[in-house]
Amino acid sequence: MSAKSFPIIAGETYTLKVSVPDYPEAIANCTVPLNKVSLNNVETIYAEKNENSTLLQTLIVKYRVNPAPESYYNFTVSFLQKFDKYPDLQTTTAHQLLSNENISGNFLISNKFSFTELMNYPADMKLSKEYFEVKIYAINKPFYLYNKSLIEAKRNEGNPFAEPVLTYTNFSGGLGVFAGYNSTPILTIKIK
Fold first, then answer.
1. Which of 31, 153, 166, 182 is least surrounded, with the fewest CB atoms within 10 Å of its CB?
2. Cβ-based neighbours of 2, under 8 Å, separated by 6 or more
3. Cα(132)–Cα(137) distance, rounded to whole angstroms?
4. What global pTM score does this model have?
5. Residues 6+ away with beta carbon under 8 Å from 90
6. Residue 51 three-state SS
7. Residue 61, exposed/middle/buried by CB under 10 A (0-12, 13-18, 19+)?
8. Which residues does residue 99 pair with via DSSP β-bridges, in sequence order?
9. Is 109 helix (H, G, I), strand (E, B) or coil?
């Protein structure tokens, strides 16, 4: 099915029903967030620190919001590097989930996104471009709770003494998540 024949509309609630023979029907609802994210409301704080031939670069993302009940966001930051002799971009990406619990004044403020980089590259690796890409998604509560449960489960991975974490599901009669989001265009922050 093409997106043109079934457009997803912000603020609308959709129902997904899944059925197969000899199993109960699984049903979930998803309301696409109304709040659109605007790049005009995004601020960033960049810092760098040199340590033992390694550069630690940090980025904090601030997003001005109108506090609304049950607002959830996914902040995604990618650190990209381009070297002259290599056609592919080197990319490292990190995500943070935020809700209106993280509001300070009218701002949602991320924790530091930290990326390390070697400062002494081999002679054949000339760094030609380096930048961050920031993307903010307005997400619904099931998206937030599902991803939060995955992060908590990953944190406990390999620890035999940790309490098990149940992965969030919003399906009745089955397991899984049916979720929605709105996203911003990409904000690019050039470093070099």
1. 166
2. none
3. 16
4. 0.82
5. 80, 81, 82, 83
6. strand
7. buried
8. 72
9. strand
